[in-house]
Design goal:
With about 110 residues, the chain is an all-alpha fold. Helix content is about 40%, strand content about 0%. Residues about 105-113 have low confidence and may be disordered.
Length: about 110
C-alpha cells in the first residue's frame, strides 16, 4: 500500500549534452532573444550580448529556459530554477557518461530509471 506524498514540491534534475553544429546560428538566436527582451536594462543587455558572442555555451544558457520546459505541464508552477552551461569533452563510449549509473538511487527516491 502506498503512502500519500507529504510534500507538494519536487526537484527535477535534468542533464543534457548538446552537440553544437552551428555556433553562429546559436549566437544569432541568443542575440535575437536579447534584443527582443524589453525588460532588460541597457547595461545588462550589453553584458549579455558580449557573453553570448564570446561563448557558445553562454548563448545556449541564454536560450534554454527552464520555465519553457514546464510552462505547458498542467498542475505545475515553477518555483525556482537555476542552470548553467559549460564546454566539455564528450566521449559517448566512456563509462563516465553512463547516465543510467544512478538508477538504483533514483528508484529509491521515486525517480524514473
Amino acid at each position: 500500500m502506498s503512502t500519500p506524498e507529504t510534500s507538494r514540491f519536487v526537484r527535477l534534475r535534468v542533464e543534457l549534452v548538446l552537440e553544437v553544429e552551428d555556433a553562429g546560428e546559436v549566437t544569432k538566436a541568443a542575440l535575437r532573444r536579447i534584443a527582443g527582451d524589453p525588460d532588460l536594462p541597457d547595461d545588462e543587455r550589453t553584458q549579455a550580448e558580449t557573453a553570448v558572442t564570446e561563448d557558445t555555451a553562454e548563448a545556449l544558457a541564454y536560450l534554454v529556459d527552464p520555465f519553457d520546459l514546464v510552462s505547458e505541464v498542467p498542475g505545475v508552477e515553477l518555483q525556482q530554477a537555476s542552470w548553467s552551461s559549460e564546454r566539455i569533452s564528450y566521449d559517448p563510449d566512456s563509462p563516465d557518461w553512463d547516465l543510467d549509473e544512478d538508477d538504483d538511487e533514483d528508484d529509491e527516491e521515486g525517480g524514473i530509471g
